[in-house]
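Section 3.1: Structural characterization of target chains.
Under the original work plan, the team committed to producing a structural model for every single-chain target entering the pipeline before any wet-lab resources were allocated. The record below documents one such target. The sequence was received from the expression subgroup and is listed exactly as submitted; it comprises 146 residues.
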Amino acid sequence: MVNKVILIGNLGRDPEVRYLEGNVAVARFSVATNENYRDKKGEWQTATEWHDVVAWRALAERAEKQLKKGSQVFVEGKLTHRKYQDKDGNDRYVTEVVANSFRVLDRRDSRPGGQDEDFHPEDPANDTSTPTGSSGEQQADDDLPF
């Protein structure tokens, strides 16, 4: 079974970061994705979906430093549902994406200091080399999610 979510969208607000017991960081932010379609009259319309995202620990701290309202971001994680009671005792239901990773997609020169702040060369996930097949030829990027 698989529970995997991939979002590419823009932040609707700066991340809100809190620290829980044991100094565990949790960041919450919203990501807007757009879908373009033609209506019955043949005119282009845009539908915007808002996704609540939660990041924990080091990823939450990184989100606080690197993510800003309006930034374009790639988020990968899992879909979760939870139930809680509000202050009046009413049951409330929440659907969230719990992030496993994210990457800022804004152009480097548009970020503060022009740095690619989320790039860590020692992280294998940030390998920018061109994939090659067993015979050394370049593979197509068909498996990339964007």
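Residues 57-66 form the longest helix (10 residues).
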